[in-house]
Amino acid sequence: MTRILPNDESNVKITTREHNFNLIKSLGRPAHNFRSKPNYFIKKENCFQANIITLSYQEFSLLERKVWLYCINQIERDPIVNNLNQVFEIPVKELNCNYSRLQGLCDTITSKKINSPDKEGFGIIVPFPEARYYKRKGVAYISLTMLSTVIPYFIDLKNKYTKFNLDVVLSLKTVYSQRIFEIVMMHTNGQRKNAFEYQIHELQQTLGCNYDNYADFKRRVLDPAKQEIKEKTGYEIEYYETGKLGRKVSEIQFMIFRKGRMNVDKIKDEIYAYSVHDEKGIVAYCHEVLSIYEFGKMQRKKIMNDMKMIRKFLLIHTRIMEGEIKIKISATAYMAQSLGFGENRGFLRNRI
Predict the structure, then answer these.
(1) Looking at residue 203, what is its pLDDT?
(2) Gap between the Cα atoms of 90 and 76, Å rounded
(3) CA–CA separation, 49 and 145 (whole Å)
(4) Do residues 222 and 239 make contact, with C-beta atoms less than 8 angstroms apart?
(5) The predicted structure's pLDDT at residue 270
(6) Angstrom distances, CA of residue 210 to CA of 73, 159, 201, 213, 221
(7) Integer CA distances (angstroms), 234 to 128, 183, 256, 323, in order
(8) What residues contact 82, with CB distance under 8 A and at least 6 apart?
(9) DSSP 8-state class, residue 191
(10) Can you tell me the distance from the alpha carbon of 150 to that of 126, in angstroms, rounded to the nearest whole number?
(11) pTM, 2 dp
């Protein structure tokens, strides 16, 4: 049974403190600060990560990310322990690395930062100021301490969090694939989106890479991640250039397809029946599909004048036709809400 002590220990007798210290030493565990709450390793199926962390710039290597994900998986969100440091204990066998790499891991992970910008400024977090390696009853462990001042960044989820399967993310063998998949999960699971846009410079900043040449960024980051996500997860992603500054690509749109619930290839064929670069063909196809819906003049104009909106509209339409989206009352009302028209009731009233 774990004894949890608050940060203010002025009313705790020194004899109790010494007793606990000696007890933990006798068990072979490192004698952590007694303002800490140990988290013993029990792997859970899913991780829940605050969106501010999903969108942050992180310095972790692939091995450090594995440790990081195990800690996110183990983090205690009980309000009773919010003001405590948390200590994460991970069996070395879970990391599949030798002693030399463990030494390097403990040395580097304690200096790695997470940069989390927000509307009012930015914050720089060092999640793990302490890392230890030890053995207990013949089993090797590493433990990492996360300070109580950092904990709120990870447990204050509210409704803004990213849910993903731990084993699925760990099956991805590059940092870029893992990070892009987490961003996809943030949009499709948390925000229920089928498409989202990203400025190239913002995406590269989040991923921690810098390619002046967009073709290099595609070849070294986007395409390998797209292929690995397709092979190892229940999702497929496509991305398309949707913005330029001069001749330079400045924005891309991601589209998310969930496998196993529908014919992904059929959706792609229907949405992109014409070449992606043949915008006239795509617009003509969209105009044909729009006739099915009872949209007003302003709604149709808003869709037809925005290529990103056209792609999103066609994706949702195909999912309705495939039966993945069940319509209870009105397909037009559902589509209008999905496209954001429901926020402006004038659109809904202005019908032909």
Answers:
(1) 97
(2) 15
(3) 18
(4) yes
(5) 52
(6) 30, 31, 8, 9, 11
(7) 32, 15, 11, 18
(8) 148, 151, 152, 155
(9) S
(10) 8
(11) 0.69
CA separation (Å) from 48 to 70, 151, 177, 180, 343? 11, 13, 18, 16, 29
Question: Residues for the chain: how many in total?
Answer: 352
Q: With the CA atoms of 276, 278, 280 and 285 taken in that order, what torsion angle do they form, in degrees rounded to the nearest 10?
A: -50
Eight-class DSSP state of 344:
-
Mean pLDDT calculated for residue range 300-324:
84
136, 28 Cβ separation under 8 angstroms: yes
Residue/partner pairs of 286-290 with CB below 8 Å, 24 or more apart: 286/310, 286/313, 286/314, 289/313, 289/314, 289/317
Longest dimension (CA), the chain: 81
pLDDT at 152 over 50: yes
pLDDT in tens, 126-144: 999 999 999 999 999 999 9
Domains, the chain, ordered by start: 14-157 (1.10.10.10), 172-259 (1.10.10.10), 272-352 (no CATH)
- The pLDDT score that the predictor gives to residue 110 is 95
Summarised one tens digit per residue, pLDDT across range 64-120 is 999 999 999 988 776 556 678 889 999 999 998 899 999 999 999 999 999 876 666
